[in-house]
Amino acid sequence: MSQTQLPQPQLSQQPHHHIHAKAMYLSCIDYRFVDATVNLVEQLEQCQCTDSFCLAGATLGNNKFPPWRQTFHENLALAIKFHDIINVIFVEHMDCGAYKHIYGIQTPENERRLHISNVALAANYYKKQYPQIQNWSGYLFHVDGSAEKIY
Fold it and tell me: What angle do CA 101, 149, 44 make, to 5 degrees?
């Protein structure tokens, strides 16, 4: 089997315990929105140093499946401990397969309401456990690539 030569990542020269990521984001696994999500978060945080976590359906997966919530919870705790994050960003997107799987086919208006509800539910759950987080926000990507602040 031949090996593919990949470009070397640009890593910080500081030891990982000196990196301050500022933010962690939870997004969906949908490949269509990966680049847009990274670009949005980097623009919001004005840096390329954020911690990331993906679940199918983003906050829906977090809210619906307790083992997934526990896994995100543990990763968020580690991100706070190791990288001193102070912002958590929930990134959702329209035309989400997880939403269709759990809720059935929805109108765009209903799907948007469900995203808003799930982001608020997740934010309120974690706010109680992580008072040191200064900013909780939620964004919803539309299929045209535009992003709307929903929390």
Answer: 115
Q: How far apart are the first and last CA of the chain?
A: 48
Token pair listed for 56 = 């199918």
Do β-strands 87-93 and 23-27 pair in parallel, antiparallel, or remain unpaired?
A: parallel
Counted domains in the chain? 1
The answer to whether position 11 is within a domain reads no
pLDDT, tens digit (0-9, with 9 covering 90-100), for 106-139: 899 999 999 999 999 999 999 999 999 999 999 9
Whole-prediction pTM: 0.88
Compute the distance between CA of residue 35 and CA of residue 25 in angstroms, rounded to an integer.
13
**CATH code of residue 115:** 3.40.1050.10
Q: Which domain holds residue 73?
A: 19-149
